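Annotated sample (chain length 617).
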Amino acid sequence: MIAKMTKYSILLLGSDKDAILSQIRDLGLLDITRSAKPIDKHSEALLQEIRDARSAADAIARIDFTYDPDAEAIAKEAEGVPDFEGDLLREADEWLAHLRTLESQRSDLEKERKQLEPWGVFDPQAVSRLADRGIRLRFFTAPAKRFSDDWASQWPLEVIHRDEGTVWFVVAGEAEGIPATEVPAPAYDYTVADSKAEALRGEIRSAKASLLALRRSLPDAQKRADDKLGELNFYLASISGEEAAEGTLCALTAFAPTDDDARIAEALDTMDLYYIREAARKEDNPPIKLKNNWFARQFETLTGMYGMPVYDEFDPTPILAPFFMLFWAFCMGDAGYGLVLMGVALLLKKVNILDLRNHRRLVMTLGVGATVVGLFLGTFFGISLAEVSWIPEGCKKLMLAGKLELGGSAYDLSMVAAIAIGVFHICLAMVIKAIGLTKRFGFKAAISTWGWVTLIVGGLITAGLALTRVIDASVTKIVVIVLGVVSALGIFIFNKPGRNPLVNIGAGLWDTYGMATGILGDVLSYIRLYALGLAGGMLGNAFNNLGGMLLGENPTWQWVFFVLIVVFGHTLNFAMSCLGAFVHPLRLTFVEYFKNSGYEGKGTTFRPFKRETTLQQ
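Output written by the structure step:
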């Protein structure tokens, strides 16, 4: 649910504003309306300083030459580089750009060295002296398959180097008609290139040492970002006050949960200010703080990923929580993987795996759900429990492992269950939408929605009662007629009271087209629950079969490879199942459910003004 908020209108002397804001920040309970974006030149400059400091910290933090061939030499040279006290971001950027230039030069030099190596070691001055005497050396390459040693009898040539694919040779004097490619005479031999490469390697090592030395400034860069962040938050809170009475008074607006009224009033009463306390209204656009039980609270992160509700909306978390857990469990589809998740949750108390420690309770909850649903689906580490002899027949009857006969065709029970869950989920969303619109805007604004709820939800309930013979055919006929008439009036005639009936009918027809195509697609989306669970179970079973085939009937050393295949296979399948079990339930919630429930998610998160406040951009 959404916590009730109290609005505080605070009036204080402008000269006391900074001191009062400092006290409010120490209190840490009030959300003073402020922006996280630059609102004037001063805040823009502060924000740019924060970005520069963070960029510098990020750039420096990425500097790592642990695996460099010259790692030891770089580290040793970095010890002699003095600490830098200027613009860290500019310094890091300049050294990184210089390093990229040096690396590019080294790459070019390596290519040049590769071209020079076949010509061996020679004296370029000797080549020049021969040219002065009229003996011009011309340099050629030819494919090894085309080169012939008989060429030496036709032209004065000397083979310098050859390999399997190419022959390098020189010709003294004229070489007309020789079937080879002439190349420019090398300016120097490859040993000179080696010397240049060694000098360049030293420059690269020095550049890396200078960059590595900048890491000593990383704490300063991070502290600078934090200090500027605190300064910006204080300034934004301060500037949000409206100056009045020729700058002598300052008015602030703040919000806090109603549960904290007593503590806040006690603190504000000690401050040199005047304030008015009143219940927040929708028009005030108060920030949102969710207040749920221990179970739903674990899933508030998912609500925040989409967007907080506005103040007069329903909090979707209590509905999102059980359905997301159910969807997750269906997509995992394996009780064994649920046990692994529970083990991971216990491990998170000791080790912060993938930064999930704060979500270990959620991981445990999802693990319990996957274990329970996996047992109903009858899969345990890829093993079909319905085919295991030692499972009691009574337990097997509870599993969704059989077929359901409908209209002469047989369907997997798990697929039917997935569709049934989807139908119920969407119907629940439509009912919530109708109730929400009625509560927020009145019954007139929700007539069309109630018409669709009557038609779809009422129709499904009637069909269920009729199929189970709770009501007979004559009663069913009457109920269907009543539902049809009532829903038609709401959808086509009174969908917007006071408007031209013909326009309402047209709008109703368009709405009907959208509902007919949209609802069917939404329901079919829930088949993914069945498909993902089935795919995960089949893949796990495939790895089991591979391991079993290798194991054979009288295994000895084969046990080692059996364990490797099964562990690797199930680890891979577990990771893929977790990814699918997160993404697809999130889609079913954010798209199918939120769309049909009319959820907006345009609220702002409650962020109390306190010293550890973080900047949200």
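Annotation: The first helix runs from residue 17 to 27.
Annotation: The longest strand covers residues 5-13.
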